[in-house]
Design goal:
Number of helices: 15
CATH architecture: Alpha-Beta Barrel
Oligomer: single chain
Helix content: 40-55%
Largest sheet: 7 strands, parallel
Number of strands: 11
Number of domains: 1
Strand order of the largest sheet: 1-4-5-8-9-10-11
Radius of gyration: 19 Å
Shape: globular
Length: 365
């Protein structure tokens, strides 16, 4: 699988190397704001069929790379594939998002959870990774991902999305040992799942801790960060003779960036509520930073989008280690042309010394 990587800016940014410009990609870049995605989604019939059909997952993964010439592709999948493979009965209710038919509420429920073999119940994800990697043919790196154990547990216990997290927080305070057992099983599942993605061809990994920000500082360290630390320690960190960088992202987690950097990860996602200059100071340039344009900025005029892009670039400042991204996933109703404006603004405004060399010779992905 060792093809020459034509554009390795993203991987080099996570290694904090000096680059000719700042690389850019977007969370949820393969999704509902693109008309070409909606056509394939309609062809698939439902969301899980789209996720579980490798050729279709590959097609929608490549759509934003083709349209915007982004610097990375991210696997099209869902963070809830692991709980689904554990037998929780994932389904999607129109207008309500994901739901589980069999939520996890008791110690017996937790004890009965299997740690799924990623090459069995999740084989469709690995087939998608290998298909995407083949079709990319070295254009840009492929990012694999998972939800964090805490975030997966919130959905598994709540039975779907939640506004107050009363059930999972109720378990945290009334039966923490059961929650820890659930998090242990989920952690082992995530480690196996992500390592299988690397074996299938993923060249970087990202862990989405979407709901870590709803925890108190002490509970964040105990119930979220501690398990992400186990994952970082358990992941394959090199493949094809090259480092596999790991990025952690806790939404609303700006106050914890320093302890997140202590895990040994390579990069941290930063949402739009934290200034990148403050994030750099907090992490003391020990890790790369990814972010952090407010996704709603893409509703602005092209001129305003350029202003906001410059604001983010200026906030990070000079020196290596920045991957431009939104501070969370792109919104469904954004005009795709506005994302194009953002991408071009990043390329133009971050260009350094007029250099056009975008990939170091002789490196392989």
């Amino acid at each position: 699988m060792s093809t020459v990587l034509q554009n390795d800016l993203y991987l080099r940014a996570l290694n904090r190397e000096e680059l000719p410009r700042t690389p850019v990609w977007v969370m949820r870049q393969a999704g509902r704001y693109l008309p070409e995605y909606l056509r394939v989604r309609q062809q698939a019939g439902d969301f899980m069929t789209l996720c579980s059909t490798p050729e279709l997952a590959c097609e929608v993964t490549l759509q934003p790379v083709d349209r915007f010439n982004l610097d990375a592709a991210i696997l099209f999948s869902d963070i809830l594939t692991i709980p689904d493979a554990m037998g929780l009965g994932l389904h999607f209710e129109p207008g309500e998002g994901p739901r589980f038919s069999n939520p996890v509420r008791t110690p017996a429920d937790v004890r009965n959870l299997p740690v799924p073999d990623p090459m069995d119940k999740l084989r469709y994800v690995m087939d998608a990774v290998s298909t995407i990697r083949r079709e990319l043919n070295g254009r840009v790196p492929l990012i694999g991902f998972s939800g964090s154990p805490w975030t997966l547990a919130t959905y598994m216990v709540e039975g779907g999305g939640s506004k107050d997290f009363s059930k999972v927080k109720g378990m945290l305070f009334s039966d923490p040992s059961t929650l820890h057992e659930l998090l242990n099983r989920t952690t082992q599942s995530v480690i196996a799942y992500l390592n299988a993605q690397v074996s299938a061809g993923a060249q970087s990994l990202m862990i989405f801790d979407t709901w870590g920000g709803v925890l108190s500082p002490a509970n964040y360290r105990e119930f979220s960060l501690g398990y992400m630390q186990q994952i970082v320690d358990g992941l394959t960190r090199e493949a094809d003779g090259r480092k596999v960088p790991i990025v952690l992202f806790t939404k609303n987690g700006g106050q914890w960036l320093d302890v997140m950097a202590d895990t040994g990860c390579d990069g941290l996602g930063v949402d739009w509520t934290t200034d990148l200059a403050d994030a750099r100071a907090r992490t003391q340039d020990r890790v790369a930073l990814q972010g952090n344009l407010d996704p709603s900025a893409l509703y602005g005029s092209p001129e305003r989008i350029r202003v906001e892009v410059k604001r983010v670039l200026d906030s990070f400042g000079t020196g290596p280690g920045h991957v431009f991204n939104l501070g969370h996933g792109i919104h469904q109703h954004v005009n795709p042309e506005h994302l194009g404006v953002m991408v071009e603004a990043v390329r133009e405004l971050s260009a350094r010394n007029g250099s056009t060399q975008e990939s170091a010779p002789g490196l392989h992905g």
